[in-house]
TrEMBL record, chain A:
This is Binding-protein-dependent transport systems inner membrane component. The keyword Hydrolase does not apply. The keyword Cell inner membrane does not apply. Belongs to the binding-protein-dependent transport system permease family. It comes from Sphaerobacter thermophilus (strain ATCC 49802 / DSM 20745 / KCCM 41009 / NCIMB 13125 / S 6022). GO terms for cellular component: plasma membrane.
Automatic annotation (TrEMBL), chain C:
Pfam families: BPD_transp_1, OppC_N. The chain crosses the membrane at residues 36-60, 105-129, 141-161, 167-184, 269-290. PROSITE patterns: ABC_TM1 (PS50928). Residues 107-291 form the ABC transmembrane type-1 domain. It is a multi-pass membrane protein. It comes from Sphaerobacter thermophilus (strain ATCC 49802 / DSM 20745 / KCCM 41009 / NCIMB 13125 / S 6022). It is found in: Cell membrane. InterPro entries: BP-dependent_transpt_permease, MetI-like, MetI-like_sf, OppC_N. Its main location: membrane. Keywords: Cell membrane, Membrane, Transmembrane, Transmembrane helix, Transport. The keyword Transmembrane helix applies. It comes from the Bacteria. This is Binding-protein-dependent transport systems inner membrane component. PANTHER family: OLIGOPEPTIDE TRANSPORT SYSTEM PERMEASE PROTEIN APPC, PEPTIDE ABC TRANSPORTER PERMEASE PROTEIN.
Length: 316, 499, 312
């Protein structure tokens, strides 16, 4: 078990290297000069050149790359050109809303998806099952920004129940915080709720056919009670793990949803930084996102090994 | 005349509250000297002040200056400063601060360079008086040093000593609101400056008394226009920086929103590259001028009721109105255009138009522009970029033939950059001479005449194509009152919020 | 599904048949997958819809009432009417025409991305699964690419290389190739241990022939299912890219950039956004349904499961 964990952690290193290299390569292909953007259209070429020199943008790529790798090893992600502060600081300021959004979305996905999957399994092939599965597929089929817009149109503009954007910190106003996060979390969460729903349904169905369940029903226990006690536990595991792997989609979806709702998270940071050609920030955020994804995968894999004895004894 | 919405309300202003303003994006910096981006003036107009500013008739009046005397045939200008005006950091504004600020502005800004070019010396004759000795008279002195995009904000010398020409060490000014914090992508926060030295006189335009009713001004970047509008309708924001006039029909019936339709004071123009082999040819530029039908372009950009077609290059400034060159404005002669194009030897190389979808009006106009050019025989390449790449490419004279821009309000023609160094590179000695005269001449009548000549040349030499004047809509919460003039960016110093 | 005695017999036969991958060789006792698929009304509906979308997109030049790119500002932002069945957008362009042409890009991007991702991914997966010495290297590389959130990776590539269908296809293919590679790798890992593969090797078949005739042939089913889903993901991803302004040239209509244009004016002219949004939704929805049903039809175990359900 420990060996497995250690092995997985070690494997992260070459992957991280690949991630870092790809990030570096990609961003030096982008045209556009951040210095010119920052100084505005009426800056003189001398001012632009001066800023470029300050930022070290003129060095050849072969020099910038090893420097980049060395800094990565120190977890130094460089300095943002536009924001004039270390990238890690810029990210730290913004990581809050994004992580919260992802977490709330996950919660909604589980809170909506798992019960839906259970109900669907219990009513297999009947109307409720088909309807719920239809909703599940609809969620994944709809573009999350389209869902976001429709939700705003309904709940903000027409009903005026919820704000259409902006971010209120929890420490400042807890109620306002949840009000401002509800719609974005719904837009993101509902669009992936289909995944756990379908997975719970199918694994529940599989488990329900197992012999030990048949024995229990034969003995006269109520099917629903049996399902909840024995089957659900087994069905939950793959559902949760699939959400862990879906984190990549969540983070990508957060980028778009944050734009629609004006949330000051990492997604918006990236989109703005792309427009501003703020290389260090783009590199940094992409690295952080990838890092989060890798870590989550590691956690999920370890959790899976821990929880599922079959895998553990097979050597992992 | 300034258009100051909602001055008629009789209610008593309430002190307190935080104003939430939704911006179209993030300002590149908070240094007024650096850039003509209007968003910078919107925010910093409350933080910094200039020596002069505009009253409700758009006449320059003293602000940080107390008075100024012109003598010696216009070659000596003595500016007396108001005394006891504190900066946000507690220091008092003195001559040395003014000199340091003007010198920096003179290095960075085109108009400032023009002033410094004729300045032999700039000295402090006493702690509250500054003296300019000029080689020749500079008639537009107070105008040049007035509130403007990229205006000459007065910063403390102690801050400038720690700054360089591209970056301020700190954001300190004398204005009614002081800088608190800037959390990029979250907000820029200003709070009331309690030590503010209120200028004498009644409120008039941007000049005179400032009520400072609001406790705080919060500027929030919301690049998504639909989110901005939705945010205003649901009460999240009190004021929107700018939105498309397409929202007018839905918003004017919404009780949660107060909409003001302003007279047209900005114009849509197409800047041509006079250093390109295609658009450098006057005959081709004339062909473009004849080919266009301005109405569909303006309709596409602004919608049916929100534009006007006038030839003046300074809409909104009635005193400067001129119809010089009007016979060449929107002539609509596509057959003639085709003929001119053919006989010019145009070889069919693509005419590149730069545009961005970040400014929807300009993009829409570009699409129609392209269509109309193609109808007379041009080959057109419409290149759509994001704002950053666009800014880059505009400086490259080999990269484009035309781009779309909106020229916003200027109360005086010297503040409109039509010099040789401006993008487009319209460099003719006679025109440059006229512009220099415009700066140095002080007699108003004479200047109107000079400007009319400039406008005449504008339509003859076609460095740009003025398409039409655009109306703006001003969208705010009905609980917000007292918003000042908006042509040079709204002034919230006298604004207040209902409970 | 057969019920009653005939059903009981059939079920008994099925339960006794061998499990696992060998089952794919025992074809005659299962119903052909296309029969299973076509027996479902939903599948027929989804298939018909998709064929309809493809046809109308391909025939767009014939069907579209107007040129999708010609701006006609005088009639901008008009609602659905006799002249413009789905209204006009803010440049006065006919929404129906743009919808038809927009489908071309969305479908083209979806198909091309899938073809590339499947082709490249299958090769990589086969190599990684079959040749152990390549596995480590390839997997690290693919894991590295997969660690990037797809949207961001695609944005960076498209912004870097400039807008255009080719760039979008490259970007999205890069995002989805690892998915295919992983799938093929895992099926390869299983298949290469099968006795018949060993037998083939003993007989002297070259690695290439083995890969082609045995490994790939047996991976086709899950590959088809996965491909269907990738088409759906790619179409949605392109819409996201268009929405963020990182896709094809905005003059060219795609459902994604129509959504982007329309979302600005949702309360003023709902049809501009709702029409492409709904179309996008329905297409992806149909693809998802098709994928699910294909999966059920092609996977022998789930067939068995379906038959068992009758017992309950």
């Amino acid at each position: 078990m420990i060996a497995y964990v250690l092995r997985r952690i070690l494997l992260l290193v070459p992957i991280a290297l690949v991630v870092g290299t790809v990030a570096f390569l990609l961003l030096h292909v982008i045209p556009g000069d951040p210095a010119a953007v920052m100084l505005g259209p009426e800056a003189t070429p001398e001012q632009v050149a001066a800023l470029r020199e300050r930022m070290g943008l003129d060095e050849p790529l072969a020099v910038q790359y090893p420097r980049w790798l060395a800094r990565l090893a120190r977890l130094d992600l460089g300095t943002s050109i536009f924001l004039d502060k270390p990238v890690t600081e810029a990210i730290r300021e913004r990581v809050g809303p994004t992580v919260q959004l992802a977490l709330y979305a996950l919660l909604i996905a589980v809170a909506v998806g798992v019960p839906a999957g259970v109900v669907a399994a219990l009513h297999q092939d009947r109307l409720l099952d088909r309807a719920l599965m239809l909703f599940a597929i609809s969620g994944t089929a709809i573009a999350d920004f389209f869902l976001a817009i429709l939700l705003i149109l309904l709940f903000s503009v027409t009903l005026r129940w919820l704000p259409s954007g902006g971010y209120v910190e929890f420490s400042v106003d807890p109620v306002g915080h949840f009000q401002s996060m509800l719609l974005p979390a719904m837009a993101l969460g509902l669009s992936i709720a289909g995944l756990p729903a379908r997975l719970v349904r199918s694994t529940l169905l599989e488990v329900l056919r197992e012999d030990y369940i048949r024995t229990a029903t034969a003995k006269g226990l109520d099917l629903e009670a049996v399902a909840f006690r024995h089957a659900l536990r087994n069905a939950l595991l793959p559902a949760v793990t699939v959400l862990g792997y879906a984190l990549g989609d969540l983070l990508g979806g957060a980028v778009v949803v944050e734009t629609v709702f004006g949330l000051p998270g990492m997604g918006q940071l990236v989109v703005n930084s792309i427009a501003r050609r703020d290389f260090p920030v783009i590199q940094g955020v992409v690295m952080v996102f990838a890092g989060i994804y890798l870590l989550c995968n590691l956690l999920v894999d370890v959790l899976y090994v821990y929880l599922d004895p079959r895998v553990r004894y097979a050597g992992g | 005349m300034t258009s100051t919405p909602d001055q008629s309300t009789g209610a008593e202003p309430r002190r307190g509250g935080t104003l939430r303003v939704a911006l179209t994006g993030e300002p590149p910096n908070l240094d007024l000297h650096q850039t003509t981006d209007s968003i910078v003036l919107l925010v910093t107009g409350h933080m910094y002040e200039t020596l002069f500013t505009w009253d409700e008739r758009y006449e320059p009046v003293p602000l940080l200056a107390e008075s100024h005397e012109v003598s010696d045939g216009g070659r000596r200008i003595l500016v007396r400063l108001r005394q006891g005006v504190p900066f946000h950091n507690g220091e008092e504004m003195r001559a040395e601060d003014v000199i340091a600020s003007i010198e920096r502005w003179g290095r960075v800004v085109g108009l400032g360079q023009g002033l410094m070019a004729v300045t032999e010396s700039l000295t402090a004759v006493d702690p509250y008086a500054v003296e300019f000795r000029l080689r020749e008279p500079f008639g537009t002195f107070p105008t040049a040093l007035s509130r403007a995009l990229q205006g000459c904000a007065i910063y403390p010398k102690s801050v400038l000593d720690r700054s360089d020409d591209t970056r301020l060490a700190e954001f300190v000014g004398t204005g009614p609101y002081r800088f608190v914090e800037w959390l990029p992508d979250r907000h820029i926060l200003l709070e009331r400056f309690d030590g503010y030295a209120n200028p004498p006189g009644e409120t008039s335009g941007y000049a005179g008394h400032k009520g400072q009713y609001l406790d705080q001004l919060e500027f929030i970047p919301v690049p998504n226009e639909a989110s901005r509008v939705a945010g205003l309708r649901s009460g999240n924001y009190h004021y929107l920086e700018t939105i498309s006039t397409d929202h007018y029909p839905t918003l004017k019936d919404d009780p949660a929103v107060a909409v003001d339709l302003l007279p047209p004071d900005a114009w849509l123009n197409i800047v041509l590259n006079l250093r390109s082999p295609i658009t450098g040819d006057l005959q081709i530029r004339r062909a473009i001028q004849l080919a266009l039908d301005h109405e569909p372009i303006m309709q596409a950009a602004f919608g049916e009721d929100f534009y006007e077609l006038t030839p003046t290059l300074l809409p909104g400034a009635a005193a400067w109105y001129s119809d010089a060159g009007a016979d060449r404005f929107n002539p609509r002669q596509p057959d003639e255009a085709r003929r001119l194009l053919e006989s010019s030897g145009y070889d069919g190389s693509p005419l590149r138009i730069l545009t961005t979808q970040e400014i929807q009006q300009e993009y829409n106009a570009a699409v129609v522009f392209k269509q109309q050019l193609e109808q007379v025989g041009f080959t057109v390449d419409l290149q759509v970029y994001d704002g950053a790449t666009l800014s880059d490419l505009r400086d490259d004279e080999t990269a484009w033939e035309a781009y779309l821009a909106t020229a916003s309000f200027r109360p005086d023609p010297v503040l409109r950059n039509l010099t040789c160094s401006a993008t487009g590179w319209w460099c003719t000695p006679e025109k440059d001479e006229l512009l220099a005269q415009l700066q140095t001449e002080s007699d108003f009548e004479k200047r109107v005449e000079i400007w009319a000549q400039v406008q005449e040349r504008f339509y003859e030499e076609v460095p740009r194509l003025k398409i039409g004047d655009a109306r703006r809509i001003l969208v705010r919460s009905p609980k917000l009152h007292g918003v000042g003039p908006t042509e040079l960016q709204p002034d919230f110093s006298n604004a207040w919020l209902e409970k | 599904m057969p019920a009653g005695r005939a059903g009981a017999v059939a079920r008994a036969r099925l339960r006794s048949r061998p499990r696992g991958w060998r089952a794919t060789y025992v074809r005659d006792r299962r119903r052909a997958w296309y029969r299973v698929l076509l027996s479902s009304r939903v599948a027929i509906l989804a298939l018909a819809f998709l064929i309809g979308v493809v046809l109308t997109s391909v025939l767009a030049p014939l069907l579209a009432p107007a040129d999708p790119q010609v701006a006609n500002p005088a009639v901008r932002l008009r609602g659905p009417s006799a002249e413009h069945w789905l209204g006009t957008d803010d440049l006065g362009r006919d929404v129906l025409s743009r919808l038809l042409y927009g489908g071309r890009i969305s479908l083209l991007v979806g198909t091309c991305v899938t073809v590339v991702a499947v082709a490249v991914g299958a090769v990589l997966g086969l190599l990684a699964g079959y040749f152990t010495w390549l596995d480590g290297l390839l997997m690290r590389l693919l894991d590295g690419v997969m660690a990037f959130p797809g949207v961001l990776l695609a944005i960076a590539i498209v912004v870097g290389l400039g807008p255009g269908v080719d760039t979008v296809v490259i970007a999205l293919a890069l995002v989805y190739t690892p998915v295919v590679a992983r799938l093929i790798r895992s099926t390869t890992l299983v298949i290469k241990r099968m006795p018949y593969v060993e037998a083939a090797r003993c007989v002297g078949l070259s690695n290439g022939a083995i890969l082609w005739r045995y490994v790939l042939a047996n991976s086709v089913s899950p590959l088809i299912v996965q491909a269907t889903f990738i088409v759906a993901y790619a179409i949605l991803a392109e819409a996201s890219l268009s929405f963020l302004g990182a896709s094809v040239n905005p003059e060219v209509p795609t459902w994604g950039n129509m959504l982007r244009d329309g979302q600005r004016l949702l309360s003023r002219a709902w049809w501009v956004a709702l029409v492409p949004g709904t179309m996008l939704f329905l297409t992806v929805f149909a693809l998802n349904i098709l994928g699910d049903l294909l999966r059920d039809a092609l996977d022998p175990r789930s067939q068995e499961r379906r038959e068992d359900a009758v017992v309950k």
